[in-house]
Amino acid sequence: MTQRLTRARITAVDTRDIRFPTSRRLDGSDAMHPDPDYSAAYVILRTDAPDGLEGHGFCFTIGRGNEVAVAAIDALRPHLTGAELGAAPADLGAVYRALAGDSQLRWLGPDKGVTHMAVGAVMNALWDLYAKRAGKPLWKLLADLTPEQLVALVDFRYLTDALTPEEALRILRRAEPGKAEREARLRAEGYPAYAASPGWLGYSDARLASAARRAVAEGFTQIKLKVGADLEEDLRRCRIAREAVGPDIRIALDANQRWEPGEAVAWVQALAGFDPYWIEEPTSPDEILGLAAIRRAVAPVKVAAGEHTANRVVFKQLLLAGALDILQLDACRVGGVSEHLAILLLAARFGVPVCPHAGGVGLCELVRHLAMFDYVAVSGTREDRTVEYVDHLHEHFTDPAVIARGRYTAPSVPGFSSTLRPESLRAYAYPHGAVWLAERAQGVA
User: Fold this and answer.
1) Residue 273 and residue 302: Cα distance in Å, rounded?
2) 3-state secondary structure of 82
3) 70 contacts 431 by C-beta, under 8 angstroms
4) Which of 45, 211, 281, 381 lies at a CB distance of 3.0 to 4.6 Å from 198, suitable for a disulfide?
5) pTM of the model
6) Where is the Mandelate racemase/muconate lactonizing enzyme C-terminal domain (predicted)?
């Protein structure tokens, strides 16, 4: 189905530094990041269209440095203010290539780091705007595009030794039969999720056990534990978690890049008695050969990575090197929806399940759209697929993620679910929002 929209011109690009003091309760704490304040470098795009709709997007950070991400979004403003938006979503492929290819800003990457995350924030805001104007949730807008329109969104530079446009078309056309049936099942059954909240490293043993039991009672069939700081602590915490959930619930482990490759192998082998399903980010996200070596050594424990992978080119190399069992796409790390599509197609080409990362503020809201689109229109399966879920900060969004019986329900509200509530934008603006003024008054900010 081709979606045509009236043209519009961008009239304003507003940016905000939004931070939540999650470090006070140790939410999000892990072996490498013990005190995160979940944050969003936030952008709002306004146009001259009479519908008055706005595009909202953000890139996720964990506190200090969020202002740098905001500055990177601001640096893209000359590309945006006054720019005319095309009449079809497929036109956004050219917009992505223009933003990512800025001849001076790309020097700071290219295609990685803060400038690339800023491109992702802007592109996600544009997709949010297009989906709102089309009256569809993003996953549905994407699923309704033709294979040819989807392929036009992808930048195939540096990918064609692993994925050509012709191969991408074959993947998408192969998924076309049964799309309507899969969409109906998605709306009726939702998409599998796993619970990450029980396993924050800063939680007490009692809190870990109760949260793990609660996750099982709520219908989750997988939980995740942070590991990597102290082996004896990890052994004890894995024992507590396994006793709490029983033998049939999957337990994933996440080291958040803490180990050298050899250390990772020894550590995972020491924890193997608790039957871990995967080990996530066991070493540097750029250690392609190290990840491949770890994967060979720790099987049948799976290796999962990708939340810090910079771009589609590095994902291609991880897949070519046989370094991943699970690909963990992140909605705010790469260059937005167009690059996510390239990564989903690469994963389908190599037959690797995509289990998106969704730990930080707003990530659950976004990645459910990408996973659901993948199921309906790309991979055509939910087998061995699951999306991370954390149980905080959703109340700040106008279209929050909803879990029922351990599954994400399919969003029905038009857009990318990326819009923060106006009152949250005011209260959590850094450093002068009411929450941060109160923190400083108490001497804790």
Assistant:
1) 14
2) coil
3) no
4) 211
5) 0.96
6) 205-301
Amino acid at 388: E
Instruction: Please tell me whether residue 135 adopts helix, strand or coil conformation.
Output: coil
> Of the residues 340, 357, 394, 396, which is catalytic?
357
- Whether 340 is catalytic is no
Q: Encoding tokens for residue 36?
A: 């995160």
Contact predicate 374/344, CB 8 Å: yes
Catalytic residue among 116, 136, 140, 226: 226
Please state, in angstroms and rounded to a whole number, the distance separating the CA atoms of residues 183 and 140: 9
Task: List, in order, residues 6 or more apart from 71 with CB less than 8 Å away.
Answer: none
pLDDT at residue 3 is higher than 60:
no
> What's the rounded Cα separation, in Å, for the pair 38 and 66?
10
Task: Write down all domains in the chain, each with its CATH number in brackets.
Answer: 8-136+424-441 (3.30.390.10), 179-420 (3.20.20.120)
Place of tokens 């490498």: 32
Q: What is the pLDDT of residues 132-187, one digit of tens each?
A: 999 999 999 999 999 999 999 999 999 999 999 999 999 999 999 999 999 999 99
Q: Which residues contact 101 (CB under 8 A, 6 or more apart)?
A: none
396 is catalytic: no
